[in-house]
Structure formats: C-alpha cells, structure tokens
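Issue 218. Parser rejects a valid record. Input:
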Amino acid sequence: MEEEFYSIIKLVSGEEVFSLISIDENDGDPIVILQNPLIMKMIHAPHGMQHVKVKPWIDLSTEDFFMIRPDKILTMTESEDKKLIDIYNNFISEEEEDIKIRPNNGGSIKPSSDMGYISSVDDARKNLENVFKFKPKES
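Output the parser choked on:
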C-alpha cells in the first residue's frame, strides 16, 4: 500500500469527493482506498461571500473506509490546500465527537462554560436577588 494523501476525485458518476486516500496495487489490479470521503460544495452567497457545504459521501454508512476501482474514477488530483484539509479534518473530528456523545446519554448534552453556560436559573435568580437586596453603607 502506498503513502496516504489528500485528494479531490471526480468519479464517472459526476460526484466530486474529497478524501484521504491510498492506493493498493493488489498484484497489478489497483484499488483506491478512500478514508472518510466527503462531498464539499462551494455555496456562493450574496455580497461575494463563499461557504463550503460539507457532507459525508455516503450518508447512512458507519464505515470509514471505501474501496473504488480506478475505472470508476474520471480524474483525481492531490490536494495540499490547507483550508480544504482543515475543513476535512474538523468535520471528521466533529463527526467522531457526535458518535461518542450519542450512545452514552441518548443525545442530550450537558452545557459547559465553553457553550456559554454560566449558572442554572435558580442560582442566577439567587445571585440577582442578593445584588438588589444589598444596601451599601452610607458614609
């Protein structure tokens, strides 16, 4: 198996896939192995803004690796675009975090200070009541 690299692949079906790939020569019958392939699409918003829409290549699969025969690939190019690679890695790591969160607690997430959680409603009410009951000393 050859070295892994990030690649943009255009399939004969017309799909464009971004993935970390490697090629297995397999005794003269090569197979392209895609790791966590994603479809990335540029969205052009008003005022010249651009966004990248990202989704898994195969939505309902729980697999990370997919194999494609080279005759199903129209063209491919190695990508060293730091922004695309960062988007890919962020999406994959967020997806892995989602998988870790869901099974353990049924999908509920306990708020943290990173999410902006300061205190419970009851604690906030008590603190505000204490602030407004406080009478400063007059000198």
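Fixed in the parser; the record now loads. The chain has a mean pLDDT of 84.
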